[in-house]
From TrEMBL, chain A:
This is Heme exporter protein D. Required for the export of heme to the periplasm for the biogenesis of c-type cytochromes. GO terms for biological process: cytochrome complex assembly; heme transport. The gene is ccmD. Pfam families: CcmD. It comes from Paragemmobacter kunshanensis. InterPro entries: Haem_export_protD_CcmD (IPR007078).
UniProtKB/TrEMBL annotation, chain B:
InterPro entries: Cyt_c_assembly, Cyt_c_biogenesis_CcmC, Cyt_c_biogenesis_CcsA/CcmC. It comes from Paragemmobacter kunshanensis. GO terms for cellular component: plasma membrane. This is Heme exporter protein C. Keywords: Cell inner membrane, Cell membrane, Cytochrome c-type biogenesis, Membrane, Transmembrane, Transmembrane helix, Transport. The lineage of its organism: Bacteria, Pseudomonadati, Pseudomonadota, Alphaproteobacteria, Rhodobacterales.
Automatic annotation (TrEMBL), chains C, F:
Keywords: ATP-binding, Cytochrome c-type biogenesis, Membrane, Nucleotide-binding, Translocase, Transport. GO terms for biological process: cytochrome complex assembly. It comes from Paragemmobacter kunshanensis. GO terms for molecular function: ATP binding; ATP hydrolysis activity; transmembrane transporter activity. It comes from the Bacteria. This is Heme ABC exporter ATP-binding protein CcmA. The gene is ccmA. SUPFAM superfamilies: P-loop containing nucleoside triphosphate hydrolases.
From TrEMBL, chains D, E:
It comes from the Bacteria. GO terms for cellular component: plasma membrane. NCBIfam families: ccmB (TIGR01190). Keywords: Cell inner membrane, Cell membrane, Cytochrome c-type biogenesis, Membrane, Transmembrane, Transmembrane helix, Transport. This is Heme exporter protein B. GO terms for biological process: cytochrome c biosynthetic process; cytochrome complex assembly. It is a multi-pass membrane protein. Its main location: membrane. It is found in: Cell inner membrane. Belongs to the CcmB/CycW/HelB family. The gene is ccmB. It comes from Paragemmobacter kunshanensis. PANTHER family: CYTOCHROME C BIOGENESIS B-RELATED (PTHR30070:SF1), HEME EXPORTER PROTEIN B (PTHR30070). The chain crosses the membrane at residues 12-35, 47-68, 89-117, 123-150, 157-175, 187-213. Required for the export of heme to the periplasm for the biogenesis of c-type cytochromes.
């Protein structure tokens, strides 16, 4: 851990806030991706069954 | 083969499935390397002390916040002119990413400004235009959400993006004009590249590369999701009609 | 003047609803569109009126020759009957307000605010607007909704006079208008087929092969 | 064109048309802000140009959704779109009508509100001039926003979110004219820029708005 | 009651429901005012309490017409009026739902906007407290205004005119709390008055609003 | 439970439209209201439902016993079919959502957003709401608008089952519902007379003598 001196709060909060936002964005993206993929697979399977 | 072939959804899905993992891994590698390098292994600035470490988040996110809007502008134009659906969906996918980067730039800027300028916020032209950019992102996203028909939404948001870009530029100059001659926010910012010493510059470059790659990876991922969502909607609608 | 439509396909909400539609409608003739709810009558009329582009196919008449009467009448509640008509006459550059009022039996109501009309009178006013447009091809979407029998007959006469004067009319309706001479086009057979049944595929079908 | 203009003006004048409401809102805001901010004359006078401009902008904003939404709901917009009048002209005329029932009255009463807000004497002329030059831009930009949301039910708040960022340059230059004028400084540059925005917006945005309406009617 | 509340919240959350737009508008205003007024921190800090309160009030105002107008247009209001639930309870629950989707988020983000407007540090706590106490009154009073204009087409502007004068006391006391708090003065009196307004409005206005709706449905 | 109306007069927009109306409707019976457009059917139903006060006359049933279905369905486009019904069931404190979905043939659509229903399906959902209110006296204003023949028959069955279970229904309609057992009340004779013809004078007539 480097010595951040009197600015420790500013630097650490910046990193924490940014990483939090990035992780939230990536997490949301992956979650929604997985959900839509699953829904699509389900509907495709259902329509396959009904038409097939 | 024309580059437009990639605008075919199927083609895009195949290609992006292949490219995405590489970009994602590379993005992660660059981000981790750049941030660790910057955070742990760079010296403090003689004037700004350790706050200079914020630069590794602040500058890349600020750059990408603007670039994301430019990318949305380009894809919107492509949609309006050539009617490639993937293009419109890529614009839709990029907006929340751009918004997040804008917020990161604002937040890190605020944390930086507190020790440097003695205030969390000053109505400095650059800061102000970023706040206005946030508003454009919010409006763009809200319009996508409010319109139900996907093609209508794509058209309307594309028009908004075009007109909005012109006004965003105009606002930028207006804001510069507005804060001239008045009390200038104590700007310690190292405005010119030359001011940044190599010790800071190299890890910064790695971080910028990381943010660019992260942006690409996220846009690819989200565009894939939007394509799937669009197809899902089409299938359900057809079920309805039958 | 002739409206000829060839191999038309129209879409609503991104979905193809009618396809393979071809017909001709010559001056002096009327054509009745029939079909169950939701088959796509309104969509077809809006396409012909130029409000939405066709998916494929050609429409011979430019929108400038067409007067479209939709479900909504486009009346302003705070204008009088005459003012409403005068506005549309001015927009279309004609001066037939007086005649239109007479033909649709609205003379007695000319100075009444549209807000104070009954539903049937409102509908009559909406139909009178067709007369002041001076256009020859009428596209009518359920024109007789909420009209009583006498008004339906009156309107039938107006359509017949329009045809006799060289106009033409395309009418989507579920009820009998008393236009014995009109041909009928049943839209059921032109319903768009689902891809499973060999129909055209949507924009996004190719994504997953 | 004349017919559409006179119809829109007549609709605005008759009961329920909302003429005068924008004005009343402007007045209310000029009363509310001193109540919220406190009565010290120095502060009020300093913020008066900005508050008056923000007030004009909000008063304009609140009546924007009437420009197209009413015509959309009762079907007139479909009929106008199929009429011989080009949709671009429809948009331009409707924006003009909106300006005549909001922008013009706002400009005329602004000096009165200037008194309420302790605007320095030198500022009055510039206030009226800047509003006269700037409010047409507000109406045209607003018409563009209204065209974007014409299909959205009760889209008032969405409309504000879309339109207000577009108002930023007009607001800045407009308020700047008044501020500099009140302080006895040079105002030519912001005044020219304001006029430029109005001209450019008036010349170009009707096309964008007409395109948006066509998309929404589809 | 729970069913109505959860329905209204769900409607606000789903697409087109406008949740978050009030917030965006609040943010917009916090940007526009400095753009109009000028960037000097001192002036801004002095007017911040008033501007923040006026902003919260306008953000609230713009979403008011959704409270009853949508239900009126699709016929739900007729059905609710003939349901076993008393119309007074309907009004109260709908005002509560409106507060939860506008007042609460506004209160929570207000400190961030305080930063933008250079609000003195001592003011933040009072800002949040005064908004938490005052915004319920805004929603209830607004519901009363919305009930008055429920039959009027696009009555947004009329609604603003009716409601803004009613908002004056809330605004004055709310802004006063923040101003005094920021200056380190005694705040008990305006705070109590603010709470009193909220309580009285919450207790009485639902009855007036229900009466107004009954008259409008007739 | 019996609805009895005696010497009722109702007004719309300050004008008396129907007067001298008296009828009884007992449990297990249905009554069809007939009359030309504008005669006052909607006004009468709204008065009986308690939404507006009668000018003169008595209505025996309190509004709490009445379920009113107007032209507008009161559906929320962004809620699903089941969510829409569950809301009304919760408001009325019943738990008949499942049965209502079955009776109106909506089970297959239960998770579809109301926005994505066709006009006829929307109407079916609006009528299903009647079933979850659990109330006995139904007041229906043109209930079969935009329903196709099969749905009209389905609805006729539902009404008959409701009558058999001790309910009652008062239905304003222009078309034939296939309820042979229902009585018909023609409203034409109850049209309010103008003062010149000896009718009651309005609030303001006396001012000018
Ligand atoms: C919340 C407020 C702030 C915002 C929105 C903001 C925004 C920006 C933007 C848009 C850039 C340009 C990035 C590019 O395209 O190269 C930038 C760069 C920069 N900012 Fe900030 N900034 C903020 C606060 C600060 C503060 C407080 C400091 C330090 C005292 C600072 C220091 C820098 C530096 C050193 C650069 C790099 C300049 C360069 O390499 O060209 N910023 N910021
Ligand atoms: N926004 C939409 N999204 C998806 N489908 C839609 C949308 N609007 C309409 N539809 C569907 O498009 C089809 C055609 O609708 P259209 O209004 O043209 O029917 P119509 O023949 O005019 O019916 P009606 O006799 O009821 O007037 C219908 O099945 C309808 O469900
Ligand atoms: N706001 C109003 N002011 C004055 N008269 C009105 C108003 N609203 C309706 N009317 C009149 O009241 C009468 C009764 O209207 P009502 O809606 O009850 O008729 P209805 O029998 O239901 O007609 P429909 O068969 O068209 O549904 C009509 O003649 C109408 O013109
Ligand atoms: Mg139709
Ligand atoms: Mg009726």
């Amino acid at each position: 851990m480097p010595d951040l001196g009197k600015y420790a709060f500013a630097v650490l909060s910046s990193y924490a806030a940014s990483l939090l936002l990035l992780v939230a964005l990536v997490g949301w993206t992956m979650w929604r991706g997985a959900r839509v993929k699953a829904q699509l697979r389900e509907v495709e399977a259902r329509q396959e069954r009904e038409n097939g | 083969m024309s580059i437009w072939e990639y605008a075919n959804p199927k083609r895009f899905m195949q290609t992006s499935a292949w490219v995405l993992p590489w970009v994602a891994v590379l993005a992660l590698a660059c981000l981790v390397a750049g941030l660790i390098w910057g955070f742990f292994f760079t010296p403090d600035d003689f004037r700004q002390g350790s706050t200079v470490k914020i630069i590794y988040l602040h500058v890349p996110s600020a750059m990408m916040a603007i670039n994301a809007w430019v990318m949305m502008l380009v894809t919107s134009l492509i949609w309006l002119v050539r009617r490639h659906h993937v293009s419109a969906l890529a614009a839709k996918a990029a907006a929340p990413i751009g918004l997040t980067f804008t917020v990161i730039a604002l937040v890190t800027g605020a944390f930086w400004g507190q020790p440097m300028w003695g205030t969390w916020w000053a109505w400095d032209p650059r800061l102000t235009s970023f706040l206005i950019l946030t508003l454009f992102y919010l409006g763009y996203i809200a319009l996508w959400q409010a319109v139900e028909n996907p093609d209508t939404a794509a058209d309307l948001t594309a028009v908004l993006c075009l007109v909005g870009s012109v006004f965003a530029l105009l606002s930028r100059y207006a804001v510069l004009f507005w804060n001239q001659g008045l009390h200038q926010g104590a700007s310690l910012s190292l405005d010119k590249e030359e001011n940044v010493a190599d010790v800071f510059w190299l890890p910064l470059l790695v971080c910028i590369a990381g943010f660019v790659l992260l942006f690409v990876a996220l846009v690819l991922m989200r565009t894939r999701t939007e394509i799937r969502a669009r197809r899902l909607q089409a299938l359900l609608a057809r079920e309805r009609l039958a | 003047m002739e409206l000829s439509v060839s191999d038309l396909a129209v879409a609503r909400g991104g979905l193809r609803v009618l396809e393979g539609l071809s017909f001709r409608l010559a001056a002096g003739r009327a054509l009745i569109l029939r079909g169950p709810n939701g088959v796509g009558k309104t969509t077809l009329l809006r396409t012909l009126a130029g409000l939405q582009p066709p998916l494929v196919g050609q429409v011979s008449l430019p929108p400038e020759a067409i007067a479209y009467a939709a479900h909504a009448d486009g009346l302003k509640a705070v204008l009088t009957v005459a003012e409403n008509l005068e506005f549309w006459a001015a927009i279309h550059g004609t001066d037939r307000v007086g005649r239109a009022l007479e033909e649709m039996n609205l003379v007695a109501l000319r100075n009444r605010l549209a807000a104070n009309l009954s539903a049937g009178q409102k509908r009559r006013l909406g139909l009178a607007r067709l007369l002041v447009t001076g256009r020859e091809m009428w596209l009518l979407d359920e024109p007789t909704v909420s009209l009583d029998a006498a008004s339906v007959a009156l309107f039938g006469g107006v359509v017949r006079a329009h045809l006799a004067a060289g106009g033409a009319a395309l009418i989507a309706t579920h009820i009998d208008l008393g236009l014995a001479e009109a041909e009928v086009l049943e839209l059921g057979p032109y319903r768009a087929k689902s891809p499973a049944a060999g129909g055209a595929r949507g924009d996004f079908d190719e994504v997953f092969g | 064109m004349g017919a559409l203009l006179s119809r829109d003006l007549r609709l605005a004048m008759r009961a329920g048309g909302g003429f005068g409401l924008g004005l009343a809102f402007f007045l209310l805001l000029a009363v509310l802000v001193p109540l919220g901010v406190g009565p010290e004359g120095g502060t009020l006078g300093r913020i008066a140009p900005g508050i008056l401009w923000v007030g004009a902008l909000l008063a304009c904003l609140l009546s924007l959704d009437r420009i197209f939404a009413l015509d959309f709901e009762d079907g007139s917009l479909d009929l106008l779109a199929t009429s011989p009048m080009p949709l671009e002209a429809v948009v331009a005329v409707k924006a003009l009508a909106h300006w005549m029932v909001t922008g013009v009255p706002l400009t005329l009463v602004a000096p009165v509100l200037g008194v309420l807000l302790n605007l320095p004497v030198e500022g009055y002329g510039w206030l009226v001039l800047s509003l006269a030059l700037g409010t047409p831009a507000l109406s045209v930009i607003g018409a563009f926003g209204a065209a974007l949301v014409v299909g959205v039910k009760r889209g008032g708040l969405l409309l504000s979110l879309l339109v207000l960022p577009l108002y930023v340059p007009t607001l800045i230059f407009g308020a700047e004219v008044v501020k500099r004028g009140a302080a006895g400084l040079e105002v030519a540059v912001p005044l020219l820029l304001l006029a430029g925005i109005t001209l450019a917006a008036g010349a170009l945005l009707p096309f964008a708005a007409a395109a948006a309406i066509r998309i929404n009617l589809r």
